[in-house]
Design a protein that fits this description.
By secondary structure, the chain is an alpha/beta fold. Helices cover about 45% and strands about 15% of the residues.
C-alpha cells in the first residue's frame, strides 16, 4: 500500500500525515504500507515505491490522500509511480489506484463534526441555524471536476440543515475567493459566521485563513466569527481511506 500525500513545508502538516499513516497501517496489515509525498516533503514517491519493492511487492495499491480529483490525482501521482517503477526496471508490478476522498460519507461526517465542535465550544449552547452562515473554504484549483466536487460537497453539507446559509469559497485559483465571502458575510443578516477550512492538514493555508477571519472579527465586532479545525487524521478519515483501499484492491487490475 502506497499512501501518497500532497506534501507541505509545514512540519505540523507532515506530522499529521505520518500520524494518519500510523493509524491506517493496522487496517491494511499484514500488507506493508509506505507513506510518501508528491512534492515539498520527504520521503518522495520513489522512496516509497522502493520500500515496497524491498518488501517483495509485486502489486501496489496507490492511495492518494487528496480531497478532490484534480491534476495531482489524475496525472501527477500515476506518472510519478510509473517513473519510479521504470527506474527500478519493474514493469512486472501491478498498480491500482484508490479513489480520492471526495464526497465519501466518512468525510461528510468528519466535516459535520468539526462544525459542531466549533459551535459547541464557542457558544456553549446550540446555535440557531437560521442565524448562522457557514463558509466552507476549499484550497482551490483550475480543474473543473475538482471545483464541481467541492460545490457538491457543500450542497451535501447544506442538506444537513445546520446553518441558515452555506457558502463555498476558495483560498486561491477559483472564485469566489475567501476574502469576498467574508466581506459578504459581514453584510449578511446572520449573526454567527462559521468559517470551515476544508483542508486535511495544518499548513500555510490554515494559518492564512485564521488571519483573514481574525481581521474580519476586528472590523465587524457585531458579528460572531468562528473558525473550525481542519479535518485532520481522525477516525473518519482513516475509515474512508481503508474502505477505498479495499475497493481498489478488489478492482480490475491495470498496469502502469
Amino acid at each position: 500500500m502506497l499512501l501518497v500525500g500532497h506534501g507541505t513545508r509545514e512540519e505540523a502538516g507532515t506530522r499529521e500525515f505520518m500520524e494518519l499513516a500510523k493509524r491506517l497501517a493496522p487496517r491494511v496489515s499484514p500488507l506493508p504500507l509506505a507513506a510518501c509525498f508528491l512534492e515539498l516533503a520527504e520521503p518522495a514517491i520513489p522512496a516509497g515505491v522502493a520500500r515496497l519493492l524491498d518488501c517483495g511487492a509485486t502489486e501496489i495499491v496507490v492511495a492518494p490522500v487528496l480531497l478532490f480529483s484534480a491534476g495531482h490525482a489524475k496525472r501527477d501521482i500515476p506518472a510519478a509511480v510509473a517513473a519510479a517503477l521504470d527506474a527500478a526496471r519493474r514493469s512486472d508490478v501491478v498498480v491500482r489506484q484508490a479513489a480520492h476522498l471526495g464526497c465519501a460519507e466518512g468525510m461528510l461526517q468528519l466535516s459535520r463534526r468539526r462544525f459542531q465542535e466549533a459551535v459547541a465550544a464557542a457558544a456553549g449552547t446550540n446555535a440557531d441555524p437560521r442565524a448562522t452562515r457557514l463558509i466552507i473554504v476549499g484550497r482551490g484549483a483550475t480543474d473543473h471536476d475538482a471545483l464541481d466536487e467541492m460545490r457538491r460537497f457543500a450542497e451535501l453539507r447544506t442538506a444537513a440543515g445546520e446553518a441558515g446559509s452555506v457558502v463555498t469559497a476558495f483560498a486561491a485559483l477559483a472564485e469566489p475567493r475567501l476574502e469576498t465571502a467574508l466581506d459578504e458575510a459581514a453584510e449578511a443578516q446572520e449573526k454567527l459566521i462559521v468559517v470551515q477550512p476544508h483542508l486535511l492538514f495544518a499548513g500555510t493555508l490554515t494559518e492564512r485563513i485564521s488571519r483573514l477571519v481574525a481581521e474580519r472579527a476586528q472590523r465587524h465586532p457585531a458579528k460572531r466569527w468562528l473558525q473550525t479545525r481542519h479535518l485532520g487524521a481522525e477516525p473518519e478519515l482513516v475509515a474512508t481511506l481503508a474502505g477505498q483501499i479495499s475497493a481498489a484492491a478488489g478492482a480490475n487490475r491495470y498496469r502502469m
